Amino acid sequence: MNSSRPTSAQAERCGHRLLAPAETHRLFFALMPDTDTRRAMEHAATHVQQQQSGLRARWVRPERFHATLIFLGDYPAVPDELVENAMAAAGYVSAAPFAWTLDYVASFRGREPPCVLRSAQVAEALILLWRTLQESLTQSGLHLRRERQFTPHVTLAYARCELAEAIAVAPPIVWPVDRFVLIHNVVGKGNYQVLGNWKLSGES
């Protein structure tokens, strides 16, 4: 008795409807680098590849470099009401532009340990922006998981193993942060879609 699953052609002949894989729609607030900063990040990624020639990794495309501020979740379809409420909450955020210095690459733990750009000293204005946005989202009535800690970083790659030690970025990357965005991404498909863009023009 053959218990193997039918092929696509067999399923079509038998009248079975083939279901497309379910999509996952991901939403998150993030910082997106300007052109010069993105190029500096790409240079840092190349430096890591040269220093760690045996590192097996999936490297992030430069156009997808970002720093996540707040993750809004994964959904089977875009939740329009959540997007509207999140965008309204973002509009109430008042924060000043600032410079964020990224000066080393290290690994996070995980099944595919990410190689990430980090900073020895995180800009206090960045932490304040995160807290202010989180507070605004909470006050808008969105029931999101409230994170107690924030570890700002930019993922460069997903590797097979952790880096043995941190790698210095020289010269350090000075990122002039003057805005934050709301991103929609269909996981595994295409580029990021920016749903909203908020310029930092308030007081720190």
Automatic annotation (TrEMBL):
It comes from Dyella monticola. It is an enzyme of class 3 (hydrolase). It comes from the Bacteria. Keywords: Hydrolase. It catalyses: a 3'-end 2',3'-cyclophospho-ribonucleotide-RNA + H2O = a 3'-end 2'-phospho-ribonucleotide-RNA + H(+). Its EC number is 3.1.4.58. Hydrolyzes RNA 2',3'-cyclic phosphodiester to an RNA 2'-phosphomonoester. A motif (HXTX 2) lies at residues 153-156. Belongs to the 2H phosphoesterase superfamily. ThpR family. The keyword DNA repair does not apply. InterPro entries: Cyclic_Pdiesterase, RNA_CPDase. SUPFAM superfamilies: LigT-like (SSF55144). The active site is at H66, H153. Gene3D superfamilies: Cyclic phosphodiesterase. This is RNA 2',3'-cyclic phosphodiesterase. The keyword Hydrolase applies. A motif (HXTX 1) lies at residues 66-69. One of its GO terms (molecular function) is RNA 2',3'-cyclic 3'-phosphodiesterase activity.
